[in-house]
From TrEMBL:
<dbReference type="GO" id="GO:0034727">
    <property type="term" value="P:piecemeal microautophagy of the nucleus"/>
</dbReference>
<dbReference type="InterPro" id="IPR036181">
    <property type="entry name" value="MIT_dom_sf"/>
</dbReference>
<feature type="region of interest" description="Disordered">
    <location>
        <begin position="347"/>
        <end position="386"/>
    </location>
</feature>
<dbReference type="GO" id="GO:0034045">
    <property type="term" value="C:phagophore assembly site membrane"/>
</dbReference>
<dbReference type="GO" id="GO:0042594">
    <property type="term" value="P:response to starvation"/>
</dbReference>
<dbReference type="GO" id="GO:0000422">
    <property type="term" value="P:autophagy of mitochondrion"/>
</dbReference>
<dbReference type="GO" id="GO:0004674">
    <property type="term" value="F:protein serine/threonine kinase activity"/>
</dbReference>
<dbReference type="InterPro" id="IPR045269">
    <property type="entry name" value="Atg1-like"/>
</dbReference>
<dbReference type="GO" id="GO:0005829">
    <property type="term" value="C:cytosol"/>
</dbReference>
<dbReference type="InterPro" id="IPR007330">
    <property type="entry name" value="MIT_dom"/>
</dbReference>
<keyword id="KW-0072">Autophagy</keyword>
<dbReference type="Pfam" id="PF04212">
    <property type="entry name" value="MIT"/>
</dbReference>
<feature type="domain" description="Protein kinase">
    <location>
        <begin position="9"/>
        <end position="265"/>
    </location>
</feature>
<dbReference type="Pfam" id="PF00069">
    <property type="entry name" value="Pkinase"/>
</dbReference>
<keyword id="KW-0723">Serine/threonine-protein kinase</keyword>
<feature type="compositionally biased region" description="Polar residues">
    <location>
        <begin position="347"/>
        <end position="357"/>
    </location>
</feature>
<dbReference type="GO" id="GO:0005524">
    <property type="term" value="F:ATP binding"/>
</dbReference>
Amino acid sequence: MSEAKITEYKMLERLGSGTYAIVYRAMKKTTKEILAVKVMAKSKLSCSAMDNIISEISLLKKLKHRHIVEMRDFLWDEENIYILMEYCDAGNLSTYIRQHRTLDEGTCKRFLQQLALALRYMRQNDVSHLDLKPANLLLTKASGTYVLKVGDFGFAQRLKLNQENTAVKGSPLYMAPEILLNTSYGPTADLWSVGVILYECLFGRAPYSSTSLHELAERIHRNDPIAIPCRPPISTDCRQLLTNLLQRDPARRITFEKFFDDPFLDLAHVACEENLEKAIALINSAIEMEQRQELGAAYRAYCQGLQYFVPITRAEPDPAKRQLLRHRVLTYLNRAEALKQHIYAASQTEEQQQPNKSIPVLKPPDERGRCISGKNTSGTSKEGGITEKLHEPDIAELARDYEIIARGLEVGRQAAKEASQNKLDIALDSYTSALGMLIPMLHQDITPGQKRVLRQCVVQWMEEAEQIKSIRSAQIMQEMESTEANHYACSVQ
């Protein structure tokens, strides 16, 4: 590689500096392409720093992912080593947090999903970053949409899931306790850092914010409990994930497998071409089922389709396409809400005619995805491929024998009532509380018949909760888009 090649680039302004590197914005003279150039003076590099650079170059040559900063080339001359990187035009997450002070939960979730996709790809290649922090999460922006990219792999190394290391690496405020305390550590050290980043995004500061490294180390040594503030309020799923990430003991910390499957993260519905196809197929299916008057199944399919369409709409960088997707989401949201009201009205009529029926729920689809024939608003379950009715005497027996089940059922009934009155946030909290009481009872010593009935009820309410989440995510997106549009209109007047 010729030393003269660096002359092909014009160094522009300085972007920042680190322990042994200065980063500049640069332009390739022939193509006018803008890049970021990391410049490291050879004279200032220790042996360990040189090892880090070699490791970083080696890893970046192989890591190619939408949410990882791409290395375009690396050069050197007598004085310096140069790493030429993709330029991220919107700064980094640290600056973004300082500008906004705290981020709403929806924004935190979108950034976290993008970070998780990068981490999943890195784990597939046995790569641990070991210096995850907001300053190393770079941002690009197109048509108001931010994309997060993981950068600065200077401390990264290859670590398989059960492999450990003892070398101290990373930034103390975001460093896992097992690294800071000079004990062996493994890949899940990155997950502690993710928890600290999420905490800072939500509350504007890191959980162990300290005035000095000594104070930070003392707090870690004392095992000071991490308090999750009450304000701003966060969802139960978000709080649970935060708690699971910020476990001091790596053995109790969430695993990568469970992290990638976490309900708050919801990687199954992230924006991608494959999920757009799933969304379209679900909506088409919902329309067909609605035309056949299979209303319960149609409602469920609309909700499932919205779970895919909302993140796809938010991630779309083209304003015209995003507006078209917003219109579709609003249409499907209105249809789902209309179906919900129709189904509830029908179930109320039947309940008045047969007052001894149990909790009204939507009719689930059969094994072919169609609605079960006949009017059955008392709930159903599939055991061994056979659909059985949920009988009121079974529910009454459970409630009589177990006080916790009686309370869970009452809260669940209240949740159904709140959902019918469009109090969706309250209903979701109630369903969560009810499930929190009922699910542990599935592991108690109750008869197989009682367990089957209880499991049917739990499954029904879990589905109801998921449907409410999809409706609320669509509503919140519409509200946010409308607020932003109004703000923009006011600004240009």
